[in-house]
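>> received
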Amino acid sequence: MKLKISLLTALLFAFHIVFSQENPFFKGYDWAANPNYKIAEETAEDMVALKEKAVTEFYFEEDDLIEYFLEHKILWLNSDDAIEEYNKIYLPFSSTAELEVNKARVITPEGELIDLDESKILTAADEETGRQYKYFALEGITKGSFIEYLYVVKRQPAYMGKKVYLQDEYNIEKAEFDLFSPENLVFKFKSFNGLPEVKEDTLTRGKLHWKIHLDKVEKLETEYQAPYNASRNFVVYKIDRNKAGNVSDIVSYSKVAQNLYSFYFPEYSKKEVELINDFIKELELSKKADEETIIRKVDAYIKTNLYSQDVYSDDLENLELILTNKVANESGVLKLYIAVLKTLNINPEIVLTSDRNELRFDPEFEANNFLTDFLLYFPDYEKFLSPNASGTRYGFPMPFVTDNYGLFIKEVVVGDYKSAVGKIKYIEPVTVDKTVDIMKITVDFDEDNLTENTVHLDRSFSGYYAMNIQPFMHLIQDKDDLVDSFIESITSEAETTNRELINDDSDLFGVKPLKVIADFTTEAFVEKAGRKYLFKLGDIIGEQSQLYQEKVRVLPLEEQFHRSYFRTLTINIPEGYKVTNLEDINIDNSFSKEDKKLFSFKSSYQLEGNKLIVTADEHYAENKIDVAVYEEYRTVINSAADFNKIVLLLEPK
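>> returned
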């Protein structure tokens, strides 16, 4: 996402000439000439970082502010996997950056120094994007070696909000972060996840200096479905004020709101108005269509007919060219949505937020690195839309940007005066009743061969469970294959006699559930044991996931979205037989907080003559599972897997 902030640049640097400057920090920094590195304690770890240092310095060169970024690491590698992972060190090279310093070396366990010569600094290109990158190709690494590298890159400054990690999947004996700036430019910092606060170093002369230096940073390992990057120790920094010009509160969301408003809510030219109206005609909207139907149509049409490119280009943000060529970048796509919707007298709010799996939006510290993802919000319906996620549809935005705070930008019109206001609010997740998987199955036994079942499947999907299929039904050529895939999720040993899809219309997503109906025969569920039969009841719902936890859970777990499962299994018990272990069906596990049931699994049965009706319902109304309740959550998740293992014993009466 590219925010329009060029006006701030002039405010920042108009007065920098008042101050003299010392040489950049990196000019006086180097690694040890004669290293004698040792790990503090004997360890069986695959790797340890002896030192990780990152230095950012903002520096005036004539009339331009530039940034020097220094990274210096010393890593001890103690396994073949670690050597394999770190025999290439990638550098932050780009067409707008210059490498001022780049060197690397290997120190063997015997103390031999192997310096990297220029021939080992290689350039390659990404096959998909074509972008070039540079990397060190390290050689001579053996188990117990240290690798050390130091580079300095000169680049365009990033000062509106930046994140720096000080924790990783390995132990760090010394972690350091320093930020230098000219004496007139003051920065603000916030530490996250228990990291100590950044302190100003008042002993530095000729420039401002903030730092955080840590000894022995414990490793943080990844865990299943954990928001790893959001959970690591990190600091976020931003520029706050220019003392020379008495300019304060430089990075503020009110400024962001005004900048975005002027860009996304312009006055349209006569030609643009004509093209917008022509575009609306292509939608073929019914005169009786209600507002939500119109929003759905606009959303689906843009995502189906517009080609989006992930590149910066003025042409791809030019509304006239977008409407003519049907090509845009992310900013251009959003511009088109707003132009079309406003012309149709629908006024959405722009929302900017972050992916909570990577970085949770902080409602107190205003920094632009929290503003990574766009949403459109429709307050009359309390629903969101992800304009730049082609696989999503209205009402069901990208899941990880919900259940998070965001900056809501609303147009305000008073007479002829138009402006925008920004407000931080919570982006509520889609509720548990909107994403539902309903399974209704009837099972009969063949009279002459009780190991063969005839199965009637009636299954429907709504919300996120339908979103990967229903909006794209017009692209599916063989719908029988689609039905068969649902049967195969239950058993691969089936002979299908009937297939049917209901509501298989792209326009019905979010309106009616996609329904699959099928009939098939199979011998997958029954085994004969003498005069008895073993009926694999649990297999009917398909394989279920199970959470294993060998170690104590450290990190929270993040789900994408709330969801519900309703399962009704009707088993017509063959004449002359009875089920002797019906109580095995009863499973009931749940967790509630403040009288609200957050997640639950309950299975039970009713026996009406020879008709056994089993229900197995499952609900998850919470995405963020704290460590304190992880075991309760795991119990509920594993309940479905326990149900999966239920085998009913059929005996002659």
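>> The chain has three domains: 6-242, 253-427, 432-652.
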